[in-house]
Design brief:
Number of helices of chain A: 10
Number of strands of chain A: 16
Oligomer: homodimer
Largest interface: A-B, 56 and 56 residues
Strand content of chain A: 15-25%
Order of helices and strands of chain A: EEEEEEEEEEEEHEHEHHHHHEHEHH
Strand order of the largest sheet of chain A: 2-5-10-6-13-14-15-16
Radius of gyration of chain A: 20 Å
Number of domains of chain A: 2
Chain lengths: 367, 367
Amino acid sequence: MRDIGTVETRYLDLPGPLPLDCGRVLPRVTVAYETYGTLNAARDNVILVCHALSGDAHAAGVAAASPEEGTREGYPSGLGWWDGMIGPGKAFDTDRWFVVSTNLLGGCRGTTGPSSTDPETGRPYGSRFPVLTVADMVRCERAFLDALGIDRVAAVAGGSLGGMQALEWAMAYPDRVDAIVVIASTHALQPQGVAWNAIARESIMRDPGWQGGDYYGTGRTPDAGMGVARMIGHITYLSAPGLAEKFGRRLQNDGGIRYTFTEPEFAIESYLDHQAAQFVKRFDANTYLVLSRALTYFSVKDLESIKTRTLLIAFSSDWLYPPAGSEEMANNIEGSEYHLIESPYGHDCFLLEEARQTPIVKQFLEG
Amino acid sequence: MRDIGTVETRYLDLPGPLPLDCGRVLPRVTVAYETYGTLNAARDNVILVCHALSGDAHAAGVAAASPEEGTREGYPSGLGWWDGMIGPGKAFDTDRWFVVSTNLLGGCRGTTGPSSTDPETGRPYGSRFPVLTVADMVRCERAFLDALGIDRVAAVAGGSLGGMQALEWAMAYPDRVDAIVVIASTHALQPQGVAWNAIARESIMRDPGWQGGDYYGTGRTPDAGMGVARMIGHITYLSAPGLAEKFGRRLQNDGGIRYTFTEPEFAIESYLDHQAAQFVKRFDANTYLVLSRALTYFSVKDLESIKTRTLLIAFSSDWLYPPAGSEEMANNIEGSEYHLIESPYGHDCFLLEEARQTPIVKQFLEG
C-alpha cells in the first residue's frame, strides 16, 4: 500500500480574535495543522479529522523530525495517531479527499493553549488561560478553515472527544458540513466518565508542582500527578478482558514476588509506569485539564435537531463511551447509520480496529 | 429489633513474635478487637469476621467515643461497618454466635501497623514496616484467637479482602475452621483490579508528603495522594448504572456551569471531594499501601484443596470482584454453595445489601 510519507506540521495565525463561551476572547490564536491529499478545484473534498484528549495535529504519515523534537518523544515510530485510517486507499482515502487535521484549541502541540504566551503579559497563560468548551474548539476549527479559504467540509470525523467535535459541527454549523463520523463517542459523557475525568484532574491539581497552573518556567511540573492521570486514562481506555488477555496476573520478576510496593511486582504495574513516563514527556498538564473539562461539559440536549448525515460507530467493550450512548444518538438522529463492532479492546478500539472501521467509513463517505 | 448497643474496642498483645511470609518477624504485635455476643462454655460458637481495605475492628454496635477520637471521624453515626449483618437476630446472630472482629495486621486502627512504634528504634515503623500478605494477616488472627483461648472457629466471614482472609483460613488452618463465608471476593484479583490498586498506591507514593513512608512526626502527610486513591476506590466500588441513578450529570450549581476546574461543577465531583476529605481524617496512607499490596498478591492456586464448608456470595454489578471469580471458586470448591445477588450497587453491595444476604448467611450457618 502506498503511504503518505513524511509530513510537516504547519502553523496558521487566525486573522482575528476568537470569542469563547465563557465570555472571554482570545486575542491571538495560532493553529497547528497537517493536511493529507489534494484540495480539488471546487474545494469540496475536505474532511476535517478531530483528535481526542491526548492527540495532536499529526494524524497520519511520518512526522518530520523538528530540531526541537528530535525523534519525537512518545511517538517512536513517528506515525500519526490515525495513520491506519488516513492515506491512499484507506478509510479516509487521500486519493479522493483532502484531509485536514488540527491540534485542538487549548492544546500543547502548536495550537494556542495554556502554555502559549499571553499577549497581555508576555508570559505563558498558565492559570489565566480560559476554561473551554467543545463549541469553542469547533469555533476555532471553523475560523481556521475560513482562513484556509474552505467554506464547507464534506465531513467532520473523530473518535471520543473528536466525535464530540463532529457532533458540535452538525449543531453549530449545519450549513457548512455535509456529514459527520462519530466514533466511540457520546452526546453526553456518562456519570462514571465524568468521575474518572474529575479524578484525573484532581491528581494533576493536587501535585504541588502544578502551582495553581503557573508552573511554566519554574523548573517544576506536575509530572507525578499527570502520570497518575494517564494511568487512570489508560485503564479506562482498555477493557477488563483485554487486560486479562494482555497481562493476566503475570509477575514482572521470574523469581516470584519481591515484597515491595515501591517497585512493580506485576507486569501490568510496569506497563502503567512506562505509559505514565512516556506521556509526561509529550503533554502539558494544563492542556489535560482544559480538554478534560471541555469533554465533561459537552452535552447535546436536542439530538433530534441534527439533520446532517451521521455515521455512528461504537465498540462492544468500550465502557468509557458505552454503546448505549451511540444507540441513543442513533435513535434520535434521523437517518443516522449506526454500527456496533464486537471487539475486546475497549475505548482504544477507535485507534486499533482500523480494518473493521474502514469499509464502514468508506461506504458512508461514498454515499 | 434489639441492638448491640455501645461497644468498646479492646487491645491484646500477642504473647510472642509473629513470623511473616517475607522472612521477617514482627517482635511485638498488638491486636485491636471487638466482640459481640457471648462465648459459650464449649467455646465452639465463635465467628471471626474480617474487614476489607478501609475497615477496622469496629464491625457492629455504636462505638464508645474515646478521649482521642471524640466523635469518631469518618463514622458520624458511630455504627460499625457491618452493623446491619451482626447483632441479635441478624445474619451473624449474636444470640447464638460469639462474633469476633479484629483490626487487620498492618492496620491503623489499633493493630500493629506502619504507624506503630518499632521496638528496635522507638520510632514509628514507616518505611521499615514489612510488606505483608493475606497469610500474614490470618497468621496474626490465629495467634490472637489462641491468646483468647479459642482453638477453633465455627466460621470465618468477610467481604472483599475479608473474603480472602476466609479463604486463607480454609487453606492454612483447615482443622481450625468449620466453615467460611466469602462475599464479593475472589481467589485472585483480576488484572484490572491489580491495576486500580497499583494506581491508587502510585498516587500515594508520588505525593511528596509521603516521604518514602517516613512522614510520621514531620507535620506532613500524603493526604492529597491518598484522597485521589480513595476517589479511585470509590468509583470502583460503585457501578456505572448506580452512579447514573444517584448523580446523573446533575450540576453542583443551579445556575449552570461556572467555567472552572478548580471547583466542582458536577454533583459527583463534589461527592468525590467529600469522600476523599473524610477518608484522610481516619486512615493512614502506609496502611493503605500495605493492605492494597497484600490483596493484590493474594492468589489461591489450588481451590480444589479447600474442603471446608464454603458459602460464596457475589453481586451482579460488582465489576471489581466480578461474579466470574466467585463462579470459578464455586466450580472448584467441592460442595460449596454459591449465590449471585442481582443488585446495581457494585462492590459496595456487600456492605449495603444486608436484607438479601441475611437469609442466605443465616441458613448456611445453621446448616
